[in-house]
Amino acid sequence: MNLQDKQRFKQIWKTLCIEYREDHCDRVFDELSDLYSSPGRHYHTDAHIRHCLNELDNAVATASSPARIEMAIWCHDVIYIPGDPDNELKSAAWFKSHATTHMSASNIETISNLITITEHRDNPTTHDEKLMVDIDLSSLGLSIEQFKTDGQRVRLELPELSDKEFAQGQQKFLESLMQRPTLYCTDYFQKQYEAAAQSNIAQLLKQYRSILD
């Protein structure tokens, strides 16, 4: 991550803190930056974080607590072990371990919930949880070229899986999304990405079915 990233992170950390220590914040950012650049990461990198932050910037007027959402974005994939179903819980635990005594209990609880909702298993309940989920899934509605590139990056993170095993896992996840009344929870993201995401996923599912037949 670059200097601009660090300055943005430090500003949002300071905004949320009841006790701000610059040396502590520097250590948190440096560890976070190292984790996002860990070997084996191809999709869950700082590029994904920047994409999500940009989506938040575009939708910030619709957020109830944009500062809390932003902190959750920074931390939601900080722990990423390919295939581990508890990455989000571990990411929330990482955040808590660094925020305790520096942020209020309310901020810590809300931000942790925003991180874990990106498991995409439970339905989000608050507006900001819905916005967080939509931001995390916004790349599904990008151009078909970028969508395919992102898919290739996810595939690179799971080299131990055969093409069939990878297709099975991705098919299960994408079909669970397609079973929702809409892919996106908020009006803003429905208008922005719903049609493109539906089309992208349909094309990819067709490809996976050809592998699995």
What is the CATH class designation? Mainly Alpha
What's the rounded overall pLDDT mean?
A: 95
Strand coverage percent: under 5%
Structural class: mainly alpha
Named CATH topology? Hypothetical protein af1432
Cα shape: globular
Oligomer: single chain
Number of strands: 0
Major sheet characteristics: none
Count of spatially separate domains: 1
**Radius of gyration (Å):** 17 Å
SSE string = HHHHHHHHHH
**Uncertain spans, ≥5 residues at pLDDT below 50?**
none
Instruction: Report how far the terminal alpha carbons are from each other.
Output: 42 Å
How many helical elements? 10
- Helical residues, percent: 55-70%
In CATH, the architecture is: Orthogonal Bundle
Annotate the secondary structure layout:
Elements: H1 3-16, H2 22-36, H3 46-59, H4 66-75, H5 87-99, H6 105-116, H7 127-137, H8 144-156, H9 163-178, H10 187-212
Helix pairs in contact: 1-2, 1-4, 3-4, 4-6, 4-7, 5-6, 9-10
